[in-house]
Design brief:
The complex is a heterotrimer.
Chain A lengths: L6 E5 L8 H12 L3 E4 L6 H11 L3 E6 L4 H14 L6 E6 L6 H6 L4 E3 L5 H11 L5
Parallel strand pairs in A: 1-2, 1-3, 3-4, 4-5
Chain B lengths: L4 H11 L3 H12 L3 H10 L7 E7 L5 H14 L4 E7 L8 E3 L14 E7 L11 H11 L3 E7 L3 H5 L6 E6 L5 H7 L2 H4 L2 E4 L7 H13 L12 E3 L6 H25 L1 H32 L2 H10 L5 H21 L3
Parallel strand pairs in B: 1-5, 1-6, 2-4, 2-5, 6-7, 7-8
Helix pairs in contact in B: 2-3, 2-5, 4-10
Chain C lengths: L6 H25 L20 H4 L4 H5 L15 H4 L3 E6 L4 H13 L4 E5 L2 H4 L23 H7 L10 E4 L4 H14 L9 E3 L4 H7 L6 H18 L3 E2 L1 E4 L1 H5 L4 H23 L3 H4 L3 E7 L3 H22 L5 H4 L3 E5 L11 H15 L4 E3 L12 H16 L14 H24 L2 H7 L1 H18 L27 H16 L2 H17 L4 H9 L4 H12 L9
Parallel strand pairs in C: 1-2, 1-9, 2-3, 3-4, 4-5, 6-7, 7-8, 8-9
The chains are: A alpha/beta, B alpha/beta, C alpha/beta.
């Protein structure tokens, strides 16, 4: 059986341009052997969902530091589901207060990583939880 | 081989332009799943309608931005567009950052545009192994213009011709591209030259060097002398747009010339030959290599060669002989 | 050139140092150094001991000198903080204009001496609150401003002739500044009396923070327009705050922050001179800077000292400025947001205090201290109060404000200052060779240098070579609950209602005419400021004006270099 390569989209939804975390993660994912599709800043959930489907990624990682995650994250999940792509896992990170975790989880965000999360920890989570699909 | 309902459905969906199905199939091809190969067999008869464009040039030449602008130009003519953006896989980690689509993201929501990033995954020759088949898939989806963008570094720039009808080579003044052009044999593959960022110093020099080189060629196939098109500064919206229109027109003129002169047939034949070559490699060489690796015979052989007990040619002959024989016997068993 | 020490002293120093080295080598064998390599947070290598020999080549008058004199290593003002303390300027803004106005009044009552505005992302990016792109963002990271009406609410009860205001605004800086001018006029305060700062530094946006709208070239042109307008009409205003803060937050090293910021400054000065034909001394005294105070105490102090000396050289030697005030590098400082941790958040109070102390020892003119909860959410009133008190304790209890540049002459501090300066010059020369900062940005040079540094730091953190307490060491306990402030979704609804009501009430024909005039000015190269002021007075919205810019100059999209 051929080993499948994990494909992950690192996306920055919304208007905030703080992409330090997104860029560091993109590099770390590359070095972990993943194929990383990076969208750049200022993407709408619509653009992200469309790109994720065209790229057939296993995971979409959303990074948001502006506080708008309560709208942007669930909206991305909703758009993926509406297009039959519920099998794409959505995770998120950024400045996200703990009391929003339950809300985001409920909305279909599988994991939330906040400042201080180690690269290895995030990569490990993906390796454990993501199986490239047929 | 009878078609299953699922296979029928897959073909129907791809022909209807379904993005999920198409992108999944490309993924399966990249991952080398055997069932993906057989899907290609089924879609193959429906290919051959698209105009395939290869766009190559050195890193930082502004290819993605140009592809982005060409998408807009083709969409204005109501043509559907497919893009395959190839980026290198890191030889050390097997990972890759595929960032070309960033510059095309404004088209993400346009249903007439399909952009797919591919990593080279260490394929020989630099182009992703899946490129040829991915082109077929986009073709069957009904994309009228298909652009294959590759980071050109020597070998790969030349390979792109195997998959395209029209090859656009993108150069930038002041990057030492003149020398690259001669070295990598790009002169032979370019149907159109683009001088990007043509507001930079050195534009006139690059143009005249290119023209001089082209003037030394006594005759071009089909009488098509590659035009040299200067693309203006991206942030000079008016002139930039006009120069992109000019490029789009040249691309289409080239295609017309191919059709009129019958050269299109030659290119298609060349493409077919390459595909046969690749398919044979997949069918014969890959399984042999895999076997040798898995059975550890490869270590053994390498050891023998190191000890000078044998040489690569003798070993290759021996292995080829053994496998061809076994293929024959499988055949007679009627599998 | 005279060295700092006599031959005799240097001889003694060399001898004693050798003895010390022997001693250490012996003890190192037993106590074995905990870390193989000791570095600053920016990965700059440090020696175990600095001695007179490290600074022997310095010339006192040329390289060190006294405060208020070239090269201003020791400060611009001869009187230091005794003459005037730094300005306590806390960045604030959230929700609606009314919410922010209330926070401002609280801060002024608490002893803050200058205002500082944070805008929300739609405002920062030049979109109105009802734009589809603004969904979910309204009032979240700062105050939402759509029209002059919001701005007047923001300034309610604020004495604009006495309090100076800093506005962190970049692509739409012309628009928000026009609103400030229009608001002053409404209150009867002449433009010559208002003071403050607009950040208005686009180059660092392309390099680091990615809040951009138009391409670099026209972005710089708009900045030159504000410099020209300010010089002629609003003489107390600082029209650019050339910012290293965001460069650092994006993961740059201290040296990169220093080099890229000063090189940005050079680019702006060149543009004003070339485009506007202004004499450098006419505008240079109003240029201001903005640095980060990170956690590495000495590195930060040295960075600020080096910055002052470097800018003096740039202005005097590169631009031939004659007025000593043109040679001054005046700067605001903010403690490092990226040094704060969500884990064990109360530790952030300590970090901020140390960083603020570094900024003061580095000679800052103005300071924002981060609140302990900023890594989690918008700061609460209580957290802001502690942050402000931190500055007051440094100013009034610790005694550090009594003596000017107290660390001068330290072998270590002077050496590190010199090293940082010389490495920063290398960067500046490299960027000069590329054809300037816009050309370098086009190549992705500063962006990639920063991305590389950010990744390296994260890897060192993961490997335990760099430490963040509570994150990768001592990570247990201390996770106290802290109250998190959230912006009600009602803010967005209310803001959109207000905006729509203004659109209904205003004279739309006048707005259209104003916008046409502005468009013409953009195309012909006339200064946009008077046209902006006219437009905001007629209640043109932030986005309407920015759409004109986008239409004429084009839109810059993230090139996504990685």
């Amino acid at each position: 059986m051929t080993e499948r390569t994990i494909r992950i989209m690192v996306a920055k939804p919304g208007l905030d341009g703080h992409d330090r975390g997104a860029r560091v993660l993109a590099r770390a994912f590359r070095d972990a052997g993943f194929e990383v599709i990076y969208t750049g800043c200022h993407q709408s959930p619509e653009q992200i969902a469309a790109a994720a489907i065209q790229e057939d990624v296993d995971v979409v990682g959303l990074s948001c530091l502006s506080g708008a995650h309560r709208y942007l994250f669930p909206r991305t999940v909703e758009l993926l589901r509406a297009q039959g792509a519920e099998d794409i896992t959505v995770i998120g990170g950024g400045i996200i207060p703990e009391q929003d975790f339950a809300f985001l989880h409920e909305a279909g965000i599988r994991a939330v990583f906040t400042p201080g999360a180690s690269l290895d920890g995030i990569i490990e989570w993906i390796r454990t939880n993501i199986v490239p699909r047929n | 081989m009878a078609e299953t309902p699922a296979e029928k459905e897959q073909l129907r969906k791809i022909r209807a332009g379904d993005v999920r199905t198409a992108s999944r199939l490309i993924r399966n091809l990249e991952d080398g799943l055997p069932e993906a190969k057989s899907s290609i067999r089924r879609i193959f008869p429906h290919t051959g309608r698209a105009h395939v464009l290869g766009i190559t040039g050195s890193p930082g030449a502004g290819k993605s931005t140009l592809v982005d602008a060409l998408i807009s130009a083709f969409r204005k003519q109501d043509k559907t567009v497919g893009v395959l953006a190839v980026d290198p896989t890191s030889p050390f980690t097997g990972g890759a950052i595929l960032g070309d689509r960033i510059r095309m993201q404004r088209h993400a929501e346009d249903p007439g545009v399909f952009v797919r990033s591919l990593a080279t995954r260490g394929a020989l020759g630099g182009l992703s192994r899946a490129v040829g088949d991915a082109v077929h898939i986009l073709d069957v989806m009904g994309k009228e213009m298909i652009m294959v963008e590759t980071v050109g570094t020597g070998q790969q720039e030349v390979e792109i011709i195997n998959h395209s009808h029209t090859v656009v080579v993108v150069l930038v003044p002041g990057m030492g591209d003149e020398i690259q052009v001669i070295k990598a044999g790009i002169m032979e593959i370019a149907d159109i030259f683009v001088i990007n960022k043509a507001d930079r110093e050195g534009t006139a020099q690059l143009t005249s060097e290119l023209t001089a080189m082209l003037n030394m060629v006594p005759e071009f196939p089909g009488g098509w002398k590659p035009p040299v098109i200067r693309i203006k500064n991206l942030f000079d919206a008016g002139p930039f747009g006009e120069s992109v229109e000019e490029l789009a027109a040249a691309i289409q003129a080239h295609h017309r010339r191919l059709v009129e002169t019958g050269l299109l047939g030659d290119r298609m034949r060349r493409k077919a030959m390459i595909e046969i070559h690749e398919a044979l490699r997949d069918a014969i060489l890959e399984p042999i290599l895999r076997d040798l690796m898995q059975s550890r015979e490869m270590d053994d052989i390498a050891g023998r060669i190191l000890r000078k007990e044998s040489d690569p040619y003798t070993v290759a002959e021996m292995v080829a002989h053994r496998y061809l024989k076994s293929l024959q016997s499988e055949d007679t068993q009627g599998r | 050139m005279k060295g700092l020490f006599s031959k005799e002293t240097l001889g003694q120093s060399a001898e004693l140092t050798r003895k010390w080295e022997d001693e250490v080598r012996h003890s190192a064998a037993t106590a074995s150094e905990a870390k193989a390599r000791w570095t600053t947070v920016s990965d700059l290598g440090l020696k175990h001991l600095y001695t007179p020999e490290d600074v022997a080549q310095m010339d006192f008058a040329r390289d060190i000198g006294v405060p208020g004199e070239y090269p201003f290593l020791r400060g611009n003002q001869a009187t230091g903080y005794r003459g005037r303390l730094w300005t306590f300027r806390m960045f604030a803004g959230m929700g609606s204009a009314r919410d922010t106005n209330a926070r401002w009044h609280m801060l002024l009552k608490g002893g803050q001496t200058g205002l500082s505005t944070a805008f929300d992302f739609p405002t920062l990016m030049g979109y109105d609150s009802d734009s589809p792109k603004a969904r979910g963002e309204c009032g979240r990271c700062g105050v939402a401003i759509d029209t002059l009406e919001d701005f007047l609410t923001l300034m309610e009860g604020i004495p604009m002739d006495r309090v100076t205001t800093s506005m962190t605004i970049n692509p739409p800086a012309t628009v928000l500044w026009a609103m400030y001018c229009a608001a002053a006029e409404r209150k009867g305060v002449p433009l010559t009396e208002i003071g403050g700062t607009i950040q208005n530094d686009m180059l660092k946006e392309f390099i680091a923070q990615k809040t951009f709208m138009c391409p670099p070239e026209p972005s710089v042109r708009l900045i030159s327009d504000t410099v020209e307008f300010g010089t002629a009409h609003v003489p107390k205003w600082n029209t650019i705050s050339i910012s290293g803060y965001h460069i650092r937050e994006a993961g740059a090293t201290a040296i990169q922050e220093l080099a890229f910021t000063l090189r940005d400054g050079i680019e702006y000065v060149e543009d004003v001179i070339r485009r506007k034909g202004m004499a450098v001394d006419a505008f240079a005294p109003r240029l201001s800077f903005f640095f980060n105070a990170h956690i590495d105490f000495f590195e930060e102090i040295c960075k600020m000292r080096a910055a002052r000396r470097m800018w003096a050289k740039v202005m005097r030697d590169r631009f031939g400025a004659q007025d000593p005030r043109s040679w001054w590098l005046r700067f605001h400082t903010q403690t490092a947001g990226c040094s704060l941790t969500a884990q064990q958040p109360y530790n952030n109070v300590v970090r901020t205090a140390i960083e603020a102390l570094a900024a003061v020892l580095g000679g800052t003119q103005s300071l924002h201290t981060n609140s302990l909860d900023e890594v989690l959410c918008l700061p609460s009133d209580h957290a802001v109060e502690i942050a402000l008190r931190t500055q007051q304790i440094i100013a009034e209890e610790t005694g550090v404000a009594a003596t000017i540049d107290p660390l001068a002459g330290s072998y270590f501090v002077e050496t590190l200052t010199n090293e940082m300066e010389s490495q920063a010059w290398e960067y500046i020369e490299k960027i000069d060779a590329m054809g300037g900062m816009i050309a370098a940005i086009d190549k992705g040079f500063p962006q990639l240098e920063i991305a590389e540094a950010a990744y390296r730091f994260q890897q060192q953190l993961d490997a335990g070579q760099k430490v963040m307490v509570g994150v990768n060491r001592y990570a247990t306990g201390g996770n106290y609950e802290i109250p998190v402030i959230d912006i009600d979704e009602q803010v967005e609804i209310g803001q959109i209602e207000r905006l729509r009501s203004v659109r209904k009430r205003r004279d739309s024909r006048a707005v259209r005419r104003d916008l046409d005039d502005l468009k013409r000015a953009c195309k012909t190269g006339r200064n946009v400021m008077p046209f902006c002021i006219a437009a905001v007075k007629d209640m043109a919205t932030v986005q309407e004006i920015c759409d004109v810019y986008r239409e004429v100059f084009g839109e810059y999209r993230d090139p996504g270099l990685y």
